[in-house]
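Why does residue order matter? Because the sequence determines the fold. Keep that principle in mind as you read this record.
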Amino acid sequence: MDAGSSSSSSASGPQQEKRSRQRRTKGIDYESSVANLSREGRETLMVVNRRKQLNTIPGTSCSVFDHSCPRYRWLHPGWIVEERIMPSDRLYRYYYDPLGQLYNSRGQVTQMLADTEKTRALVIYDK
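Structure:
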């Protein structure tokens, strides 16, 4: 009896995980995501595209987002996120600052933003 109940509970776990993974892969296509970027996001995308071509791996789907997307409101203007979904349904996120510098995790981005806030200087011109 216990073996039957454990197999049914383990069967629902992977199925539920698979369903959530399938929902995540349904997304916006690359062209639509670029159209939804803010002006600052498009400028960053142009810098990034000059350095590295996005959306070039066959069998992947790729989208880009910026602070105008509800998921990424925490980003500063000019930063973009590239989401790549591989054929295995593995999701990779790449973050780019306005200069085109690549960051591989949200932690790296938040650390960079925190460091920038600490070192920001105020310059006052006296006439």
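The chain has one domain: 29-118.
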